[in-house]
Write a structure and sequence with these properties.
Layout lengths: L1 H11 L9 E6 L5 E4 L9 E3 L12 E5 L6 E7 L2 E7 L6 E4 H6 L6 E7 L2 E15 L2 E11 L6 E2 L1 H4 L2 E6 L2 E6 L2
Parallel strand pairs: 6-11, 7-10
Antiparallel strand pairs: 1-2, 1-3, 4-13, 5-6, 5-9, 8-9, 9-10, 12-13
Length: about 180
């Protein structure tokens, strides 16, 4: 699955940087990857997702267009650090790459391990104080800092709070509670 997200993220890099809702994946001064809303100073890489729309019922709905390989991606942030999440119903928890975790000031609260398609991986459990995706803001969200991960994953511990419906090639998310 990780390889699939790497390929999808690579393919999204060919999208024009001028697309609305773009997040730029840049190398910082220390050589680490960081996500930002402004173009990179060097080696620009844009990762894009669809913008949210409002539902007629006024409760708000996020509509996400299907990306390459049938995957869904949504712009957001972790403690106000811009990012682009892969919506992953196969992930039990939100998973954050180590570089994003460092940029967002996340600290390891306990160690653990998980079984992935690539084998057993050591992870660090943490809590995200402020997680934003689309127009939704959640506070104090459990997450895993995953060193081998390139793309942040929006897992089921968040997705279970939403009604999820796939209509054609779009995913509709609306808040349950």
């Amino acid at each position: 699955m990780l390889c699939r997200f790497r390929v999808a993220a690579f393919m999204l890099l060919i999208a024009p940087a001028a697309l609305a809702g773009s997040i730029y994946k840049c190398k910082g001064e220390n050589g680490r990857l960081q996500y930002q809303e402004t173009p990179c100073a060097h080696n620009e890489q844009a990762v894009s997702s669809w913008k949210p729309s409002a539902a007629p019922d006024g409760k708000g709905m996020l509509v996400i267009g299907q990306g390459l390989g049938g995957n869904y991606f949504v712009n957001g942030s972790v403690n106000d650090i811009p990012s682009n999440f892969a919506v992953d119903t196969g992930a039990s928890t939100v998973s954050i790459p180590i570089d994003l975790a460092k940029s967002a000031g996340l600290r390891c609260q306990s160690m653990g391990s998980v079984e992935t398609a690539n084998g057993t991986e050591r992870i660090c459990y943490t809590t995200i104080e402020k997680l934003v995706f689309g127009q939704f803001t959640l506070q104090y969200v459990s997450a895993a800092i995953t060193p081998g991960l390139d793309q942040p994953l929006l897992g089921m511990n968040v997705l279970k709070r939403f009604h999820i419906e796939q209509v054609g090639n779009k995913m509709h998310l609306s808040r349950l509670y």
